[in-house]
């Protein structure tokens, strides 16, 4: 739970998601790529097969 003081009259604007917070001399370019695929197949009532592919 968040409590705000009565002196709080407005919330700050949301920063741009493309903003890089690292200093320019750090040479940082944040990027995240993630993918996942999952497949299940029932071979019969007692046996099934599961495959997963993950890339990060």
Detailed description of the structure:
This protein has 56 residues and is mainly beta. The protein contains no helices and 2 strands. It has a two-stranded antiparallel sheet. A hairpin with a 5-residue loop joins strand 1 (35-42) and strand 2. It is elongated and about 65 Å long.
Helix content: under 10%
The global form is: elongated
Whole-number average pLDDT?
Answer: 80
Q: How many extended strands? A: 2
* N- to C-terminal distance: 34 Å
The tally of helices reads 0
By secondary-structure content and strand pairing, the structural class works out as mainly beta
Strand content: 25-35%
State the major sheet: 2 strands, antiparallel
- List the helices and strands in order: EE
Order of strands in the sheet with most strands = 1-2
Low-confidence runs (pLDDT<50, min 5 residues)?
Answer: none
The radius of gyration is 23 Å
Key structural traits:
56 residues; mainly beta; two-stranded antiparallel ribbon; elongated
Task: Offer a quick outline of the entry.
The protein is mainly β.
Set out the fold topology:
Blueprint (H helix, E strand, L loop, with lengths): L34 E8 L5 E8 L1
Antiparallel strand pairs: 1-2
């Amino acid at each position: 739970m968040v409590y705000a003081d009565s002196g709080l009259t407005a919330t700050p604007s949301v920063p741009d998601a493309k903003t890089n917070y690292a200093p320019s001399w750090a040479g940082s370019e944040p990027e995240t790529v993630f993918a996942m695929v999952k497949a299940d197949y029932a071979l019969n009532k007692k046996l099934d097969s599961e495959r997963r592919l993950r890339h990060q």
